[in-house]
Amino acid sequence: MQAKSATNLKVIDVSHHQNDRGKIDWAKVKTDGVAGVFVKATEGGSGHDKQFSSNAQGASSAGLKVGFYHYAHPELNDAGKEAANFANAISGCAADFPHVLDVEGEAATVPGEQLTAWCVEWLETVEKLTGRPAMLYTGASFAKSNLRQPLGKWPLWIAHYDTDRPMANDTWSEWAVFQYTSEGTVAGIVGNVDVNAMEKAFFDNFAGTPADSGSTDEDSVKIVVNDKLAARGRLIDGHAYLPVRELAEALGVPVEWNASEAKPYVAGKSVTAFKLIGGSAYIGVRAAAELLGGQASFDGQTEKVYFYR
Description:
Elements: E1 9-14, H1 16-20, H2 26-31, E2 34-43, E3 47-48, H3 52-61, E4 65-71, H4 79-90, E5 99-102, H5 112-130, E6 134-139, H6 140-146, E7 156-159, E8 177-184, E9 193-198, H7 200-207, E10 221-225, E11 228-236, E12 239-243, H8 244-251, E13 255-258, E14 263-266, E15 269-270, E16 274-277, E17 280-284, H9 285-292, E18 295-299, E19 304-308
Parallel strand pairs: 1-2, 2-4, 4-5, 5-6, 6-7, 7-8, 10-19
Antiparallel strand pairs: 1-9, 2-3, 8-9, 10-11, 11-12, 12-17, 13-14, 14-15, 16-17, 18-19
InterPro entries: GH, Glyco_hydro_25, Glyco_hydro_fam25_subgr
GO molecular function: hydrolase activity
Family: Belongs to the glycosyl hydrolase 25 family.
C-alpha cells in the first residue's frame, strides 16, 4: 500500500449523521479545499438514508464531485436484494465516482470465501443495473482478515486511522481512496467528519472536468436515434461523441461496465475507443456506427447526430 502524498485530493464522506448536528453549508465545504464527497444512499435490503437527496444535490450544486455508497449487511440479506435497493434509490441521480459497496462491522461474521462471493455479486449486479463502475470500501484490518480475490480487480477505498500508510493485505496492492481520519473538521459541517485522500489519477479518470478532456463544457449535441431524440452528446476536439449508455438504451441493446478490463461492453462487444468523462463513457460517432453496425452522421450547423440501426 502506498502512503499519502501531496498530490492527493481531499474528499469527504457524509450521511444523515452530519445533518443531524446541523445543516451542511456545501458552499463553505468547497472553499475548504474539498474536491469531492461520497454520500450515503442506502443500507441493507431496504434502508434509505433520509438525507441522501439533500446531500447529493447540495454537494453537486456547490460544484463538488459526488459518489454514492451503500452500507452492506451480508449477514442479513442476499446480495441481489441489497444491490437492487441501492440501484433503485440512486436512479436518476448523477454520480461522478464509482458506486461504493461499504463492507465492515457485522459482515465479519460471514466466512471469508462466502463474504467475498457476496461482495462480487453485489458489485457485478450494481454495475449491470446502473451501467456504471463500482468499487469497495472497507477497513484495513477487515480487508486483510476477510476479503479475498477476485475483489482485487475493483478499486479500493480503505480506512486506517493515525497513519500515513494503510496496512497491507493480500487482495489489493494499492488504494484509490484512503480514509485516514474520522475526526476531521471541515468548514460548513458541524462536528467531526471522515476525511479521505484520493489519488489524483483516480479523480481525473472518473471526475475530471470536461476541459481536462478537451471537451465542451456540457452535453450540447443532440443525439437522434431512429428519428427520436434520445440523448445529448458533446464535442471533443471538434468531433462529436455519444454517451455509450444512453445510446445503447435508445437502441435497446445491453450495456455494462467491465471492472476487470476497465471498459464498457455494448451488445456483448467491448468498447475500446472511448473517453471517460465524469464517470461516463463516450464514443465517437464513426466508432459507434462501426461497433453497432449502424449508420451515423453529424450535422455541424445544427449540432445534431443522426444514428440509424
